[in-house]
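Anyone? Bumping this.
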Amino acid sequence: MKILNFGSVNLDYIYRVEHFVQPGETLAAKEQKMAPGGKGLNQSVALAKAGAEVFHAGCIGIGGESLKILLEEYGVHTEYLYKVDELQGNAVIQVDHSGENCILLYGGSNRMITKEQIDETLEHFSTEDWLVLQNEVSNLEYMIEKAAEKGMKVVLNPSPFEAFLEKLDYNQVSWLLINEVEAQQLTGETEAEAVWNTLHEKYPGLSLIMTMGAAGAYCFTPQEMIYQDVFPVKTVDTTAAGDTFTGYFLQGMTSGLSLKECMERAAKASAICVSREGTAIAIPMRAEVEELYHCLKN
Ligand code: RIB
């Protein structure tokens, strides 16, 4: 069983601000950092830090060479990363005093993924393999269709949300990971159970993770429902907490942990992530997650 993440790779320009900049306002940032990021890269890093073997596919553009090196340093396979003559995808991230963020995304190289690249990459994967996707890449629908045709398990984090995602055939998806905002955009519902009922009725094979920030997360499958509370920590920066959850949850799933164990470990990993600054670099190693477990137990 192999995990393929066809995902974005971004240069993150992170600005610490007192409040998010308002229309017409010029605001001086208190601090600025450049860091590796992108929902795709963060999720691959989280999978690798959790202990999974993961292949990251996508496009490296102009200025993005260091991102490929970073993935390799964490043991992520990069042979399906193509080099393209386009500016590296990037994000401008404001983080306010409460640790909340707002993100402006430029797709760049991440939007250069072609159907030919997808076909070539998927040739190396088969029925027992998993495909992880977010909506920061081009040809997302094609990826889902081709992977489902092969019988791969498709995991989709439809973020950032766009109108076309409402029309996707989620019968081709095994796991959908969404936050409350995306849940409402997709189903019109806000309560977790109502979100699940709406999706389950239309797509009976689908399983769902709905994260709700400080209010915890739900996991629904056709057989069971699990609620996972957050582990309280001092919030420094919430960016990449969802990506951390996704990576840790999937590593647990693909290594045979129970759903309850997967949810608990993913919640611990994201708690550590929000207690730190940054995106990929804030994602904890598995030993740190286990350490938190011991701290909480004693
Ligand atoms: O989820 C956080 C990520 O969203 C950031 O790293 C940024 O690049 C955007 O893709």
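Late reply, but here is one note on the structure posted above: Residues 8, 10, 12, 37-39, 42, 91, 103, 105, 136, 239-240, 243, 279 surround alpha-D-ribofuranose (CB under 6 Å).
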